[in-house]
Automatic annotation (TrEMBL):
Annotated protein name in UniProt: biotin--[biotin carboxyl-carrier protein] ligase
EC identifiers of the protein: 6.3.4.15
Xref: SUPFAM superfamilies: C-terminal domain of transcriptional repressors, Class II aaRS and biotin synthetases
Catalytic reaction annotation: biotin + L-lysyl-[protein] + ATP = N(6)-biotinyl-L-lysyl-[protein] + AMP + diphosphate + H(+)
Signal peptide: none
Keyword match ATP-binding: yes
UniProt xrefs under Gene3D superfamilies: 2.30.30.100, Bira Bifunctional Protein, Domain 2
Alphabetized GO MF terms: ATP binding; biotin--[biotin carboxyl-carrier protein] ligase activity
Enzyme class: ligase
UniProt keywords, alphabetically: ATP-binding, Biotin, Ligase, Nucleotide-binding
Native source species: Rhizobium redzepovicii
Length: 254
């Protein structure tokens, strides 16, 4: 218990189940939630046969990388959940930093939560949620990190940790992620710690002040990346005298 009376989050609050193969660690977590699991459960797999990224895209999931999903049940009031992807990105960045050697290319976060090394994507994060029949809300955080394998035809330039002289195994990387996520979720404090999280996110962000294009479901918008607001929305300066807040989209630099 913290001095302010709130319950602290610690490593002992989380469980981990390691699988050899599954269709999707996110799907596995959702199935556990529907079956009544209480949450704070990590599921990892050496290989996924049906891994997916944002907007239903295929996530290539061969052995050699880290595929992990965290099941959270009622992690925060709904109005405070929008900042969780930023907290997740901070935790993943912290974990990867531990296994990169000194002098590696810059490790940064691309809004909202892709992790880049030298402006090349090495990690994707997919957050999904579902209201369960018993009224609880299940939120699943899926994390795929390229440790030694990369997709052949990516939408973005990609890289893997091996290409940056990291000798960490997926298991070693997960141990750092397990610890970092507990630390960051404790600071996030069910969304009450958003100010601290957004400050940490801004410190590791990629491309603030640069020209970007944001692909939305129905159109593309270009402008200058003016950073994020205190709720984690992307702030796009379109050059028309106003700043446009964007809640979701794919960001491209240049």
């Amino acid at each position: 218990m913290a001095s302010d009376g709130r319950r602290r989050i610690s490593l002992g609050d989380f469980r981990h189940e390691a699988l050899s193969e599954t269709s999707s660690t996110n799907s596995e977590c959702l199935a556990r939630a529907r079956a009544g699991d209480g949450g704070n459960l990590w599921v990892t797999a050496e290989r996924q046969t049906g891994g997916r990224g944002r907007r239903g895209r295929l996530w290539v999931s061969e052995r050699g990388n880290l595929y992990a999903s965290l099941l959270l049940i009622d992690p925060a009031p709904m109005e405070r959940l929008s900042s969780l992807p930023l907290a997740v990105a901070v935790a993943v960045h912290q974990a990867i930093r531990h296994v990169l050697p000194p002098g590696a290319e810059p490790l940064e976060v691309k809004w909202p939560n892709d992790i880049l090394i030298g402006r090349k994507k090495t990690c994707g994060i997919l957050v999904e949620g579902e209201r369960l029949p018993d009224g609880r809300y299940a939120l699943i955080v899926g994390i795929g990190i390229n440790v030694s394998v990369m997709p052949d035809n990516p939408l973005y330039p990609v890289t893997c940790l091996r290409d940056h002289a990291s000798a960490a195994s997926p298991e070693e990387l997960f141990a750092h992620l397990f610890a970092a996520m507990a630390d960051v979720l404790d600071q996030w404090d069910e969304g009450r710690g958003i100010a601290e999280i957004t400050a940490r996110w801004r410190a590791i962000a990629c491309g603030i002040g640069e020209k970007i294009t944001v692909n939305l479901p129905d159109r593309s918008i270009s402008g200058q990346f003016a950073g994020i607001d205190d709720n984690g929305l992307l702030m796009l300066d379109t050059g028309t005298g106003r700043i446009m807040p964007i809640a979701a989209g794919d960001v491209f630099f240049g």
